[in-house]
Amino acid sequence: QNINEEYRSKALTDEQKRDLQNKIKNxxxxxxxxIASTYRHIIIGDGKGLKSYDxxxxxxxxxxxLSNLVWQTLKDNEKLLEKLDPNLxxxxxxxxxxxxxxxxxxxKLWEYxxxxxxxxILANDNVLKASICQGIQRGLFGYGLGNGKTxxxxxxxxYVEEGQIDISESSWLLKPH
Length: 177
Prior knowledge:
By secondary structure, the protein is α+β, with helices and mostly antiparallel strands. The protein is built from six helices and eight strands; from the N terminus they run H-H-E-E-H-E-H-E-H-E-H-E-E-E. It has helices at about 1-5, 15-40, 65-75, 85-90, 105-115, 125-140, and strands at about 40-45, 50-55, 80, 105, 120, 140-145, 150-155, 170-175. A hairpin with a 4-residue loop joins strand 1 and strand 2 (about 50-55). The termini are far apart. About 15% of the residues are buried.
């Protein structure tokens, strides 16, 4: 494309112009395919080291970018979650909530998922919010707004919408008792 711009005003034969346009078209098709074939593996931490996920051979199609394949590969291998069972927030599997603590800050929970490689990646914070809503409704934990010791608002064993859940330093999950 730079050559095309540089020589546009210069005298090129019609054949040279056609050849240049063909080379530009070929490059626009081939370069994304070469890039896609180069990036075949996803390497992420698993808490013990690095783990590789092979995405397989990939044929580039503009309507299906490489990022879609990365997303799908991580989902298929349960490293990226679009839904999160609230039982996992309180279970021993990930040990997110220390037994000695009666509360846990929602912002801290979110940070765990963004910082610790042994945990899956959450697609966005709405995944955590939806999980919190389900956990409140099932009575797995309560949700409170306050400073961690006193709370202005508490929800427990009731329906709560995602929009009512805040991921911040002033919102907390509370043990059921």
